[in-house]
């Protein structure tokens, strides 16, 4: 079993305008972007500021996705040791496979999956000959600082991930009328939270919070670049500040910072 089993190890944006999205996020986060040309498509790699450490990638939203009504979106890759076996277990636990396991030659094997409430994520395993990417220091600017599941009630949503990936419950925060906010740990680190999705949300989903040094400056860059703030700035338990937003192509993402 890989050391990073159950960890989010990659984040991917599917969008309608790759070049515009790359300009927006590099200005906002300091990421650098480089495009790799492959036989079937181009893929833009996003790296941390000043470091050859990959955070994620950008690819064009394919025609099949558009036909299915899938909008621009971010998704997270979760590390497993065997994609096919994990996919089979996932189905037994009530999840579903949206895209059957397939190989990325020389890189790894993946499958697009969804939990029992419909929140989508990607199962991923490196091929043995592939070099594992260097790990970024958690919490530094440009890393993903928080993972948030808006799905069914946490008492229904959490057991699926616990059984599949070995995640552990951490503190539970009472959100009043919004219900419980269940923190969870991956390994020995509290990595995110789960809560009941809003009634007006069309589907369950994962949200990813990009770490930035300060929120107000990031919001100025975000709006100047054509993004839209949909919630915040807001201080959250622990003292951090967050913003929830959409990029110019409509993909939902979030920011988190230690200061306003």
From TrEMBL:
<feature type="domain" description="VOC">
    <location>
        <begin position="143"/>
        <end position="258"/>
    </location>
</feature>
<protein>
    <submittedName>
        <fullName>VOC family protein</fullName>
    </submittedName>
</protein>
<dbReference type="InterPro" id="IPR004360">
    <property type="entry name" value="Glyas_Fos-R_dOase_dom"/>
</dbReference>
<dbReference type="InterPro" id="IPR052164">
    <property type="entry name" value="Anthracycline_SecMetBiosynth"/>
</dbReference>
<dbReference type="Pfam" id="PF00903">
    <property type="entry name" value="Glyoxalase"/>
</dbReference>
<dbReference type="Pfam" id="PF18029">
    <property type="entry name" value="Glyoxalase_6"/>
</dbReference>
<dbReference type="InterPro" id="IPR029068">
    <property type="entry name" value="Glyas_Bleomycin-R_OHBP_Dase"/>
</dbReference>
<feature type="domain" description="VOC">
    <location>
        <begin position="7"/>
        <end position="126"/>
    </location>
</feature>
<dbReference type="InterPro" id="IPR041581">
    <property type="entry name" value="Glyoxalase_6"/>
</dbReference>
<dbReference type="InterPro" id="IPR037523">
    <property type="entry name" value="VOC_core"/>
</dbReference>
